[in-house]
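Two entries, shown back to back:
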Amino acid sequence: MSDTDTAPAPGEDQRRRAPAHRAKPEDHTEPPCLADAAGDPS
């Protein structure tokens, strides 16, 4: 029951976690975040 409730799909679970983490750039101060800042004029 937990397997189906926690992970409906092996690809959907990872895709939902990827955007969720990227949605918080303030909490993410890693190199990937710097790449986004480099593209921004700010």
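entry 2 starts here
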Amino acid sequence: RTSEEQLDLSNATADHTINEKIEFIKENAGDRSKKSDIKTNIAALTKLAEWYGLSSTQLEEVLDVVLDSKLDEADNNKLAKSLVPRDKVPEMLAIHVLGHLGQSVLKFTTQAILLRWVVIAYNLLDNHSKLQLLYGVVFHYLEYNLL
């Protein structure tokens, strides 16, 4: 299917296709022999996420792949940029991201993309009570001009 055909899917079919793309990327993230297929799936997932958004479960799965950092930097960044929420975002996803900032596993550009995502998604969080306790962490990283 072309990407234009995929955008004409019903929501249920789109969800199924999104889940297939995420699953393929998760299963093959460390396999260099499937790099081309991974890139194709990331490109398709990005288009679908832009059009339909990702459910909270899908956001969590994509975040797990990004935070594991088994993909090369460019693919990891593209995947991080595909984190377009469809509904409310669980607060724990933002906290999970903040817990990975500053670790050498993630490249600085990926950390910047994820920090930007936390700031942008703030108004979509299902709760703010725990995240408010971490404002110091957020502002610590904002001082580094990562955004």
